[in-house]
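Attaching the record inline, Q. Sequence:
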Amino acid sequence: MNILFDIGGTKMRIAKASPDMDSFDDPIIVKTPEDFDEGMRVLSQSVQELSNGESIEYVSGSIAGVIMGDSRTLVRSSHLLGWEGKELNTKIKEALSCIDVFIQNDGELVGLGEAHYGAGKGYPIVAYITISTGVGGGRIVDGFLDRKSVGMEPGHQIIDFDKTLCKDCSDVGIFEDFVSGSGVEARFGKEAYEIPQNDLLWEDLALWSAIGLKNTIVHWSPDVLVLGGSMITGNPAIPLNRIEENLKKLPSIFPTLPVIKKAELDSVGGLYGTLVYLKQKKSTLS
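Structure, as predicted:
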């Protein structure tokens, strides 16, 4: 059997892939432990529950952060500080006694899932951006993750280097500080879902989102821009129509915008992406 996992800044989702590798069973959802060793214990316990004694062949997973090297070491993660510096492939193979582990950044794999099963299906070049606890994403070309040297971290682009837009934002005003759930909580002392939809803050978030997304459009030149994450698909949420209206007002060298769509796979987009990624990796082994 094959196992899929999606480790985010707040929740872990673990599921068993179907024998035909076209779907997966209902996932186990647990809070992501701050401590790495505890995270490995929770992952192992969840897999044991799913496997019912059956041996594990391959494991495919996503995690929030920058991953490098053959050991897939998590070198940076804004929301999983206790996991930084850990060799994920090595530790997970030890914990689950599997043949191999394939791990990628969570935003990229959600985008891969949306490209195959969701809002990006049928488009050659898909840009996916998630606005949730943090901001991440990836570029998918002809159904495959685009190549990169280190990673894709659109949430860390600087959009306010002199702090004229958001004096309350930290450091040099990266995109994530402006629009993410953690950024909203840091600036206003409350969770985003506690702020009513009619509050003008959501209009500001739509403008700030458009600024960061305009950079994504001119850098990645996608056919479709898919937006996901709790700050986009939740209730309340950053209004998609207001983001698009602001995008149209911003100057651009391109004559038209790409298609702008809301993600369709909800909270299991990462598992769909890991499923696709596992199939692609296994095809190279045969």
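The mean pLDDT is 93. The chain has two domains: 3-105+267-285, 119-264.

More tomorrow.
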